[in-house]
Amino acid sequence: MAGRNRDIENELIATAHAVADAARAAILPWFRRADLSAANKAAEGFDPVTQADRAAEEAMRTVLARRRPQDAILGEEFGRSDGSSGLTWVLDPIDGTRGFLSGTPTWGVLIAVSDESGPFLGVIDQPYTQERFVGGPGLAEWTGPHGGAPMTTRTTAGLSDAVLFTTFPEVGTPDEGAAFQRVAEQVKLVRYGMDCYAYALLAAGQIDLVIEAGLQAYDIQAPIAVIEAAGGVVTDWQGGPAHGGGRALAAANPSVHAAALDLLRSTV
């Protein structure tokens, strides 16, 4: 939020919380319902969307239309709406719809505010557990029913002590999967299937690495802001910006990031 006065910063943070609150209220009535249905958005494979996804994004957009009508919006379900302020709200109403359909509490609501240089404010919200992870310049904290605290990423120096997460065991293409395995073979522990909750755990100092491929901008912009605010590093697999989507390497600190990046860079 560099270059913006404190009143604007506070307004953006308050609006982000209001957007997350609206998404929670829209989503929770649908979670673990036997009559929840899902349409498939993918031409191949399974990319589900539910009533909850659409209802949540509609609720989020309603809050933004009232509080920040000058800002642009990029949302997974309803695309892009133009704005005049130079700011864009990047929304994923349910990141991890497959987990949502399965009843696991590893999905989440992703909210980012981005300018021409990328995301600078992010929220990862888990409505069912009521945990919220918020990050921006000078702000890195989580809150929940069991308390809350400032967030600081881990200081793990090498891969041999690192904990690595990804969502899908295959990661992406066969070449991308092979690159992931090169890192996985060096770390202490590998876990799968956590969707955006893995990024929240990295920011909160619980794990060291998240490696994914095939992402969209709305999948990664909120995690970038949250993790960087907590002291972590997020890039693509070549060490460049990741906020456009594609391949992402999120790490707790520069040391473990560099070690993982060396093993990923050779991927075509």
TrEMBL record:
Residues annotated to bind Mg(2+): 76, 92, 94-95, 219
Transmembrane region(s): none
EC numbers for this chain: 3.1.3.15
Region forming the signal peptide: none
GO biological process: L-histidine biosynthetic process
Required co-factors: Mg(2+)
CDD domains recorded: Bacterial_IMPase_like_1
Keywords: Amino-acid biosynthesis, Histidine biosynthesis, Hydrolase, Magnesium, Metal-binding
InterPro entries linked to this entry: His_9_proposed, Inositol_monoP_metal-BS, Inositol_monoP_superfamily, Inositol_monophosphatase-like
Source organism, top-level taxon: Bacteria
A single MF term (Gene Ontology): metal ion binding
Catalytic activity annotation: L-histidinol phosphate + H2O = L-histidinol + phosphate
Pathway assignment: Amino-acid biosynthesis; L-histidine biosynthesis; L-histidine from 5-phospho-alpha-D-ribose 1-diphosphate: step 8/9
Metal-binding is among the record's keywords: yes
Top class in the EC scheme: hydrolase
Record family assignment: Belongs to the inositol monophosphatase superfamily.
UniProt protein name: Histidinol-phosphatase
